[in-house]
Amino acid sequence: MSAKILNGKLLAQNLENALKKEVASLKKETGCVPHLVNVMVGDHHGACAYAKSQKKAAEHISIQYELEALQEDVTQEHFRQCIKRLNDDESVNGIMIHKPVPQHIEYHAVAKYVDTDKDLEGINVTNIGKMLLGETRIIPCTPASVMEHIKSTGIDLYGKEAVIVGHSVIVGKPLSLLLLEQFATVTVCHIATSEAGQLEAHVRRADIVVVAVGKPSVIKGDWIKKGAVVIDVGINQVNDKIVGDVEFEAACKNAAFITPVPGGVGPVTVTMLMRNGVEAFKAQMRKKGKL
Ligand code: NDP
User: Which residues does a 6 A CB cutoff place in the pocket of ligand 1?
Assistant: First the structure.
């Protein structure tokens, strides 16, 4: 079998086209468009590339997008004041804090300052809690991207064996909830699974494998079950190349569908940030009685 490659750029384009139409009709109804702000400290190269993709996506969808640049030596208090100003600004609908932040700033502490209604990344504790209860459409962006890729295969998750490798707060843990919501049988593997020598056995029985580790070739291609869906979230630089966590060529021989790295999960993650911005905008407009 030679896997079908899931084209993240194309999927992102299609989803963004739909968002563009929605934003145009929201503008007719409310007179305004979503206004999103990315708070970035210093000028980290990777962060800049990510911010550029966000700007491009926002322009395509006709969302207002701004960068709020803070000095590298910003204090935690100044950071808090900046977020408070954006929280209080009624014209701002969504806020995100760009990672990485400098070592002297504690990311999770500053992320807590972001108003729940303006939490673009869906990582605020209240939004995570609402997600558990199925009460919000503001969902962490990378897990949301993974779900869109799986949806694009047309495969019904009901009763399928889904194995997630990696249990981080931004990917593995929230993704496990989203897969459960679709009635997949979910297993979450992590470092202890590997140390116990169990990782291969779990991956071998998976109908859906999602890998978010950050180690090239941590998943061997011949572990993939025939006909499985493989979603590779990992981003690793090896020499001059960007690769994922899965041995791509070998995995293609067994998988039915697989995401490439780059060009798979990444582009759709940016689209999901925009979608969260639109959802945040709609919720705020409803509160104001404008929708
Ligand atoms: P973290 O470092 O927070 O999490 C990595 C996870 O992998 C941890 O749960 C860790 O377990 C687990 N792990 C480490 N080694 C092994 C192993 N040998 N076997 C099994 N599990 C292992 O990373 P993130 O979740 O933030 O990111 C993961 C990858 O995804 C990175 O490459 C990152 O760049 C990429 N990424 C891509 C995004 C995209 O949009 N494309 C967005 C976000 C991340 P433990 O904690 O127990 O050690």
Answer: 142, 165-168, 170-172, 189-191, 193-194, 199, 212-215, 218, 233-236, 265-266, 269
